[in-house]
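ARCHIVE CARD
CATEGORY: sequence design from structure
SOURCE FIELD: tokenized fold
FIELD CONTENT:
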């Protein structure tokens, strides 16, 4: 297939994984160690929203608990039994369940795989320029500038 053409369809599990497992600065990146994201939307040249097939091995997490200012997010559980953590507390999830996180709600969320089985889910989010992310449990904040995440301490000092 020529490098500039996009596939019509792919087997999601065969899509290449991201080469950089996390954008988080140290020491935060270690908290999502083991997580594997396969960017599916990029394979088709999608630019308005992203779709990832994400795999969490046992005892791993999707992200730090976070909330977006401009980006809506949606997850759909394909396999395993992760726990969703939000301001409401812990919610057990199972295959076939989904959850959505509205932009600007301030309600931080993350998934944790606290089981001995692999968790796999689809995550979908838009790519709103100027999105800001707050991390209620960590000294971290982020802003998206020209498609890149810039991370700072909550007082603005860079990492």
């Amino acid at each position: 297939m020529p490098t500039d053409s996009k596939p019509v369809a792919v087997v999601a599990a065969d899509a290449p994984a991201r080469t950089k497992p996390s954008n988080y600065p140290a020491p935060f990146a270690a908290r999502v160690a083991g997580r594997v994201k396969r960017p599916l939307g990029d394979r088709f040249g999608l630019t308005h929203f992203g779709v990832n097939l994400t795999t969490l091995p046992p005892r791993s997490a999707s992200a730090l608990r976070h909330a977006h200012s401009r980006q809506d997010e949606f997850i759909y559980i394909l396999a395993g039994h992760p726990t969703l953590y939000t301001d409401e507390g812990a919610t057990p999830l199972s295959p076939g369940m989904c959850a959505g996180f509205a932009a600007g709600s301030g309600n931080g969320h993350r998934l944790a795989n606290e089981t001995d089985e692999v968790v796999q889910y689809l995550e979908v989010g838009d790519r709103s320029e100027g999105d800001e992310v707050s991390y209620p449990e960590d000294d971290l904040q982020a802003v998206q500038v020209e498609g890149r995440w810039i991370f700072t301490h909550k007082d603005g000092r860079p990492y």
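CARD ANNOTATION: The mean pLDDT is 94. Residues 55 and 120 are 4 Å apart (CA to CA).
SHELF: design records, drawer C
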